[in-house]
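User: Quick sanity check before I run a bigger batch. Here is a single chain. Can you write out its predicted 3D structure?
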Amino acid sequence: MAEAVELLLKYIKEYKSKCEFNGVDFEADLSSMYTEVRRCLAVDFPNDFGPEFCHNPGKDLKDRVRVLQKKVRRREAKNQTWISKNQGESEKRETGLPQRSKQRHQERQRESGAG
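Assistant: Done. Predicted structure follows.
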């Protein structure tokens, strides 16, 4: 019995490390954690946990990918909008500077008598 508890803790720690490495919240999808731990325990205790492979009752992988793709598209659109907005302001500032410099240069030339 103690061996099973130690293995359970070991598999949960491994799953947590895997989630942290992938940047996923450890407690966000408990059904995935249960499925993964059950699969691991089935290797060591096939009579108690049934077959090694079991169906994940959580979301389908394609659904998860679609959700992530939507988030990425929204973030990219938001970033593009921000870049366009700031680029336009930057161009306004840049177009004003040469004109002012040119005027100052002409004023200096007039003051020195060279113009």
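Residues 61-112 form the longest helix (52 residues).

User: Great, the batch can go ahead then.
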